[in-house]
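Batch job 17 of 40 flagged for manual review because the log was empty.
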Amino acid sequence: MTTSAATTSAALLVRTPGAGFERATIARRAPREHDVRIDIRFAGICHSDIHQVRQEWGSSRFPMVPGHEIAGVVTAVGSGVSRYRVGDRVGVGCFVDSCRACEPCLAGEQQYCQRGMVLTYNGRDQDGETTYGGYSQQIVVDENYVVRIPEGIDFAAAAPLLCAGITVYSPLRRWQAGPGRRVAIVGLGGLGHMGVRIAHALGAEVTVLSQSLAKEKDGLRLGADHFHATSDESTFTTLRGSFDLILNTVSAPLPLDAYLGLLRLDGALVNVGVPSEPSSLNLLSLIVGRRTLTGSNIGGIRETQEMLDFCGEHQLGAEVEVIGADEVGAAYDRVVRSDVRFRFVIDVATLDQA
């Protein structure tokens, strides 16, 4: 099916910083030659949505429709689309376009586009229009920035993979998590629980480092081999020099020197959480042990598809709590309190319910 008609879509919209959500109708462009129109089934809530809605990063545009963990079904395609057909199960992640010409884009690393990727929401597309995200019933995206969701993954469990899943998969792959490698995951939240599942599926020996032992049963059930409380100072003595890779998924500032001391020779501490305050360290923590302190930012389209295929093969999805459109505001407050196991996902069909 090919269509050229623009449409409108029901959505959850925030008009000003910190305001509540309201139901609204937004415009979606007519599919261009290489566009697909997607009926959104589920949209995950990422902590970055909360930062943006509450203007905590200082770069928000309003009115805003958040959401960059999108799972749905293709309902229309442009005349030149070759990758997808009507009825395909697809997803959209954190960006919907990039310059396509710089070195990172040509290498399939669009997340590092030198001109800047076009964010799925709170961005500006190539026409200068503000982008609206997945807290809506429909979205129109160029086929080259859409990925296929394997049949074996439920839509609700798949949605958070488009951000949380790829955010942990990319560094785990790059720093070679697998058999014979000891991996620590710092934090067992929306990112961390997927880090545990994926690292375990890759064959690594997995340890969770959490502030307390409150989530130990969850961590072991998800695939961790060991679980330690970082509030216990003896943890940093007992585990000194233990890990090849530490993946930090929390947004709170860490005592970096203490965590770097947990690395083996040539080990790496990779950060995917973003603290609001600057961090500091003693450079000797890197020099002694030839350690690496680095970061990682989601993944490109090719790697995101690789991640989804891997999750499909291993029957991995996020553990989610499905909520209705009227529960999003309360869910935001619960995320801030860490009162979720492990990701909220919005049932977009509830936008039709008054």
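Reviewer: the log was empty due to a logging misconfiguration, but the result itself is present. The longest helix spans residues 301-314. Unflagging and moving on to job 18.
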